[in-house]
């Protein structure tokens, strides 16, 4: 049995590399998908495809439609979603993706530093599990395959 | 035909009163539901019902389960969800509620100041309509009933 | 038992009035909803609410989001959808609404002049019933209430 | 990860060949399905299987049932739907297929020349992304696989 | 709490009258819907609305589309479906309606004489309850309202 | 706004009366439904309707089909499910009803004495809220209606 | 692309062999599943597994539960359902399976001799296509794979 | 065709080994998944990943969230669920898993000793088949693949 995991959340740190490396070292049969990690490109993809837009809001609007297309396709291919919240940024698209995962019946692992618990309390209460570190999320993935 | 509208979003300003008053003055057949607007109570409802919790995280956890219960019941009774984002706070539960509305097939009206467009671009792209003021949201509600 | 019927389709003729009048004269317990029938307003509703847009495409885009919001709310309140195709105009939103009705499990009555059968053949094949006149659609509605 | 894309829309030009060729040259792991592209055969398939029909409407009706069967099977196998609208023909089955894709939760890429924006505005507003050329649609597909 | 019950099945005997009378005498808050009970009309409704058809098969086809429209609307309004099978006739539409009820999550009460058990065994195994007489079905309805 | 609450769980104590009385004294707009509370009748309802069965297992089987019919109808009418577990009995039907509620998207309030936490931990983790007393469940219901 | 087709319907003739042979000779990438074709075994499977039952009705009941288990598993694995009705037998399980297929969104090909049109008219009206011979059903399957 | 079967139920006996061995000896193309069978680990997995918890209830709560995550992922990968009830323990999570399977449309085979029929009668009535021994469940699986 192979699993596909969607890695939602911030694209400013290298947490996805950490996840992939550890899963590889544990030889778990998991493959990963996720958002465009090149931040500049995820902001400019609308203009890259459709050309210069009249203003900043429309630049954002066109970019977000291609980002949502990508997320929609890849999340539907996934068996589990991991959403990581960091200390910076609004991260409303992460909250949206996490909530979409729950609504699609995709089990959700939420990673957040303890100090973010208060603003994330309602989402944490809906997540299947909430952990604080990438390492703990890996252990949760690993537990799915463990037989004893 | 009567509609029920769930008013998701910040509970620190009086925007819900503004919505209700304008809808009343327009005599639109709409009733409103929403989260507990007393912030302190929404934070302490877990301990109010279950008693003192061992620590702050668990205090939050128990509170959020009652808040989510409330939201779940009331949103299922709603025909439309309006989600308002303000300049302050993380508002991840608002993003979660907005996304849940979309997943349940409830039409979503997003209200946000233009300067928040960038962090809200993916959610805005999924919303049925995005507006900048309460007044515009009222006009959108009113348009549903207009016959010419 | 009361039924709500959504009347999708062209807004350039008075077919909805004909439907409503006949249903009233038959005293059938049916109420009707439908799109904004003032064509100019349905084209300008985006700018009416959000203000002047940079160009014609964006004017259309904003208008369509409010029109879709309206349709989404009202169609979910409906038990049956009647979609009428006329000889003029592209009417792609009518085809879209008719198809959405089918996907939502709302029974669909398609009204089209016989000469439009060829381009509408796939939609007609999916509709619950296809008729040629408003009068025939009324008979179909009436049959639902008849006891003998 | 391999994706299957359903190519809905007009069968009078060679746009599907253009899509397939470009995707092949980009070595994207995508396979394509779509409607019967031989127009005469898609019109006569009913009589080909069931024999001569009493009149033109019934000839159409039987043909459309086999065309819809085909579309239904193939679209369910697809991860994404691309719908292309051209300048000619009613293309109501394309609007129907595009809308069905959205209702099934299949992400939809809409291709239409800018001058068709007005009649397609409601469908465009529902599509995940709207582009003007086949090339732009390919870029959207490619973006799903890009990692930076 | 009021319930609506769809009475599927044969229209050649007066079993529906028996059901309604007994429910009325028990003062249960139940209203009933069901198919057209005038057999001739249910066979000719297609031609009644659309005019003379080319042959008997098409006469049947048009009639069945209006009958299915009726069933679809009324069954969606129902909380429970009762399907009665008698000794005569093919009754394939009854089996279809019973199965549709189950797929829609509508509880199904199957009434059949014991001697029909063998051919109905798979449907009986899926039904919520199987009884042999109208009287037993009434008792099942009554039990839903009983408090002791 | 009125809510309907299904009261699942043991029928050997008078906890339902306690719930109803308190809700009445709080004047909350809630009505209640639930299983047959006369234990003997819920065990014999199969034979009461269908007559003497060949053995004890079949006596149980027929009874359970009528009990499940009742639960299915009433739970679909409900907005919230409260499931109470007591110290005695297997209560597997309560676990089943609670799980069905969750699968239907009905918010679930679980009431169990603290000492039952271990065997109920997986169900508790899925429930919207878990409380220990009827009184706490009433507070949870009341909170849904509170405005401050 | 490979398809799986469930062959519902009578098990007294060799029509399934005919289907499989023709599909093999056309080299279509289709595999087939279906009910137990050994009639005696499908009637006795309940007693084969659970032992002698008290009477004929219970013998049927246990058999049908294993037959429905089989059908449920295999139909969920299928992309298309073909249901064949013959001149003999009640075939209510065939009508049930055909209707279940439609409710699951599985495209349905109905095969029936023209003389059975009247009793099958409602099911025929719901089926994606209705044909009269196995050969015509094969052509419908083949058309799905044809590219011109 | 390969099937995946989730083996829900008690983890104190070696019934899963018995199932797997027999299926292997019959060379059936079935693979198995299920809960963590090391009881101590399934109780301590929360603390293993998240560290020491404040009290026994919270130790259970964290453990159950990881156990439910595991079950949710693996059950969604399954085609059939087998749930075995034994004479000891509360087994409420087994009842919950069995009920979840039914709600997800996964066929359910219930194994229970005859003496447990009374408390399991409602769940048994909903299960696709109920048997008394592992051997009988294997026969049910085998029957799905048998061709005569």
TrEMBL record, chains A, B, C, D, E, F, G, H:
Full protein name: YtoQ family protein
Species assigned in the record: Rossellomorea pakistanensis
